[in-house]
Amino acid sequence: MTEMKYGLQSKAYLSAIMDLSDKSIVSFVVGHSNNNELVFRTFDIAHQSYPNAKPIFHSDRGFQYTNKMFKKKLDDAGMIQSMSRVSRCIDNGPMESFWGMIKSEMYYLNKFNT
């Protein structure tokens, strides 16, 4: 998940799930809060799109990914959870690279009022 500021003091959050086999984004959701609901919706869209997939689900250690409800979602879907080491963003390199590309090619080049 990444944060994007707009207007004077507003923030939007973009949550996305990437398939590491081809670097495609299989689901994404934009919201105004970086809460569990945003991550759960992103996960649900990905799982509905690929109901038979049983991937290793890798993430950083954000609170949205470390809570018991998210772990149960993964278990119920038959997925294995994997997390980056503490303070090691390089462990999540492909996703961090994607966020950097989105921000440098789209976000930083524009001013968003709403």
Describe the structure.
With 114 residues, the protein is an alpha+beta fold. The protein has a single domain, classed as Nucleotidyltransferase, domain 5, CATH 3.30.420. Helices cover 37% and strands 27% of the residues. The chain has a 3-stranded antiparallel β-sheet. A two-stranded parallel sheet has the order 4-5. Strand 1 and strand 2 form a beta hairpin. The chain is globular, with a radius of gyration of 14 Å. The mean pLDDT is 89.
SSE order and pairing:
Layout: E1 2-6, E2 10-19, E3 24-31, H1 36-49, E4 56-59, H2 63-66, H3 68-76, E5 80-83, H4 93-107
Parallel strand pairs: 4-5
Antiparallel strand pairs: 1-2, 2-3
Keywords:
114 residues; 4 helices; two-stranded parallel sheet; RNaseH-like_sf; three-stranded antiparallel β-sheet; Nucleotidyltransferase, domain 5; globular; Transposase; alpha+beta; 5 strands
Low-pLDDT segments, ≥5 res: none
Distance between the termini: 20 Å
CATH class: Alpha Beta
**Which structural class best describes the helix and strand composition?**
alpha+beta
Number of helices: 4
Beta strand %: 25-35%
Helix content: 25-40%
How do the strands of the widest beta sheet line up side by side? 1-2-3
Radius of gyration: 14 Å
CATH homology group: Ribonuclease H-like superfamily/Ribonuclease H
Q: What is the 3D form?
A: globular
Return the CATH topology.
Nucleotidyltransferase, domain 5
Note the main sheet: 3 strands, antiparallel
- Secondary-structure arrangement, i.e. CATH architecture: 2-Layer Sandwich
Number of domains: 1
What is the residue-mean pLDDT, rounded to a whole number? 89
How many E strands? 5
